[in-house]
Amino acid sequence: MMAKGHQAMGLTWGVAAVTFERWLPLDLNGVPETLLFLTVVLIGALLPDVDSKQSKIGRYVYPIFAGVVALIVIGAIWRPDMLAIFTEQRTSFLLIGMGLILLMLTSHRTWTHSLVFVVIVGVVLTTLQTSFDISETLQYGFLIGVVSHIFGDYLTKQGVPLLYPLSQKKFKFILSFKTGSPVENVVVMGLVGLCVWMLASSVMPF
Ligand SMILES: [Zn+2]
User: Fold this and answer.
1) What would the pLDDT profile of 19-29 be if each residue is shown by its tens digit?
2) What is the pLDDT of residues 160-170, one digit of tens each?
3) How large is the greatest C-alpha to C-alpha distance in the chain, in angstroms?
4) Which string of DSSP letters, residue by residue, matches 117-152?
5) Separation of CA 53 and ligand 1 centre (Å)
6) How much distance in Å is there from the Cα of 113 to the middle of ligand 1?
7) Ligand 1 center to residue 51 CA distance, Å?
């Protein structure tokens, strides 16, 4: 799926999660929290394509990552005292940095499109929670986004290696479509329509 499709798919899963909140381990209070939750879902929905420099997220993550590393190096030279936050949260920053470097080295649609990746993201989020106090609802939101991405690519002809690295086998839905094809555009429009319907039925009394 293209980035646009993943955003529509992520949004659909996010809106569905908000709609069925009472049956899920989510705690959303008010519009700002719900919007933050949906934003986190959308970021998670783009993450698995971080292994592709051509992808929407890949194009932004690498320059930002390089910029942050450059700032840390410059900061270490000019203002070592300002680096206190990095030394305090060293484990978390090392985890994020090493994770991104590993993702850069993987080939497209392998690790990041497998069930192992979902587990890794879950473990990283739990570890980060101890340093940054991220709410469980937002952690679930990020995971929902990641799973929605893998599901979106599962619908495409290319499929996804769900059991990677145990097996290279690509799994795909029986009714799959080509990435970027007109069928994908129809699916995207259908998902957007579904989101509007879910949102409308949750606010209107019918
Ligand atoms: Zn993908």
Assistant:
1) 888 888 888 88
2) 999 988 999 99
3) 63
4) HHHHHHHHHHHHHHHH---HHHHHHHHHHHHHHHHH
5) 12
6) 7
7) 9
